[in-house]
C-alpha cells in the first residue's frame, strides 16, 4: 500500500519551505537562495531548499510548466526520459524520471508518487519514491530514492511569483569521490532560470 499525501502532508511541506528554523544558507545571489539542513545521525541524507524570485512569471504559468511532464524536456536539460505510469486519484499519479549524471557516475532514475494541490493563488507539487512491479530497477541506471521532494509556488502579485524547491534525495551508489555532487540542487538553478525564455 502507498500513502497518498493528505492535507497534513501538504501543510508540513509548506511549513518546511517557509520556516527558517534549522536551515543554513549556502548560496544567496541574483534572487536565488539555497539552504541545507543536516539530519540526525540516523538519516545521513541532508535536506536542500531553494527559493527563486520569478519576475514576470505568474504563479499559475509556473505551476503549469512544472506540472506538465511532457513539457519538461523543453527546459530540463539533465532529463533523459520521463513518463506517467498511472493515475491514482484526481490529484495523484505514479511516474518515471531519469537524468544524466556527470562522468564517471552512472545515470540515475526514480519511480515516484506525485501529488499536487492548487490553493487559490498558490500551488504545491510533492513526491516520494515508490516501488512498481512493472518498473523495477534497470541495469543501465542507479535507482535513486526521493525521501521527499516538491515545489511550493506562491503568487507575488499579478505577474510574478516565488518558487520554493525542497528535496531530500538519496542518490544511492558511490558518489563520495565526486565533489561536484556535494550540493546537487545548485545544478538545477540554471534550468529554472532558462525557463524564463519559454514563459
From TrEMBL:
<keyword id="KW-0282">Flagellum</keyword>
<keyword id="KW-0472">Membrane</keyword>
<keyword id="KW-0445">Lipid transport</keyword>
<dbReference type="InterPro" id="IPR051213">
    <property type="entry name" value="START_lipid_transfer"/>
</dbReference>
<dbReference type="GO" id="GO:0005829">
    <property type="term" value="C:cytosol"/>
</dbReference>
<keyword id="KW-0969">Cilium</keyword>
<keyword id="KW-0966">Cell projection</keyword>
<dbReference type="InterPro" id="IPR023393">
    <property type="entry name" value="START-like_dom_sf"/>
</dbReference>
<dbReference type="InterPro" id="IPR002913">
    <property type="entry name" value="START_lipid-bd_dom"/>
</dbReference>
<keyword id="KW-0597">Phosphoprotein</keyword>
<dbReference type="Pfam" id="PF01852">
    <property type="entry name" value="START"/>
</dbReference>
<keyword id="KW-0007">Acetylation</keyword>
<keyword id="KW-0963">Cytoplasm</keyword>
<dbReference type="GO" id="GO:0031514">
    <property type="term" value="C:motile cilium"/>
</dbReference>
<protein>
    <recommendedName>
        <fullName>START domain-containing protein 10</fullName>
    </recommendedName>
</protein>
<keyword id="KW-0446">Lipid-binding</keyword>
<feature type="domain" description="START">
    <location>
        <begin position="21"/>
        <end position="182"/>
    </location>
</feature>
<dbReference type="GO" id="GO:0008289">
    <property type="term" value="F:lipid binding"/>
</dbReference>
<dbReference type="GO" id="GO:0016020">
    <property type="term" value="C:membrane"/>
</dbReference>
<dbReference type="GO" id="GO:0006869">
    <property type="term" value="P:lipid transport"/>
</dbReference>
<keyword id="KW-0813">Transport</keyword>
Amino acid at each position: 500500500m502507498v500513502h497518498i499525501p493528505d492535507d497534513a502532508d501538504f501543510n508540513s511541506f509548506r511549513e518546511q519551505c517557509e520556516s527558517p528554523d534549522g536551515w543554513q544558507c549556502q548560496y544567496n545571489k541574483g534572487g536565488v537562495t539555497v539552504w541545507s539542513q543536516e539530519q540526525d545521525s540516523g538519516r545521513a541524507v541532508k535536506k536542500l531548499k531553494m527559493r527563486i524570485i520569478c519576475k514576470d512569471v505568474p504563479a499559475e504559468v509556473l505551476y503549469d510548466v512544472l506540472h506538465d511532464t511532457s513539457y519538461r524536456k523543453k527546459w530540463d536539460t539533465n532529463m533523459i526520459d520521463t513518463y506517467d505510469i498511472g493515475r491514482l486519484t484526481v490529484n495523484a499519479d505514479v511516474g518515471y524520471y531519469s537524468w544524466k549524471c556527470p562522468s564517471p557516475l552512472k545515470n540515475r532514475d526514480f519511480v515516484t508518487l506525485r501529488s499536487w494541490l492548487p490553493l487559490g493563488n498558490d500551488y504545491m507539487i510533492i513526491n516520494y519514491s515508490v516501488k512498481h512491479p512493472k518498473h523495477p530497477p534497470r541495469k543501465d541506471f542507479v535507482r535513486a530514492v526521493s525521501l521527499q521532494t516538491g515545489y511550493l509556488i506562491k503568487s507575488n502579485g499579478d505577474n510574478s511569483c516565488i518558487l520554493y524547491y525542497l528535496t531530500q534525495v538519496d542518490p544511492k551508489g558511490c558518489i563520495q569521490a565526486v565533489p561536484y555532487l556535494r550540493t546537487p540542487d545548485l545544478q538545477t538553478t540554471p534550468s529554472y532560470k532558462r525557463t524564463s525564455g519559454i514563459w
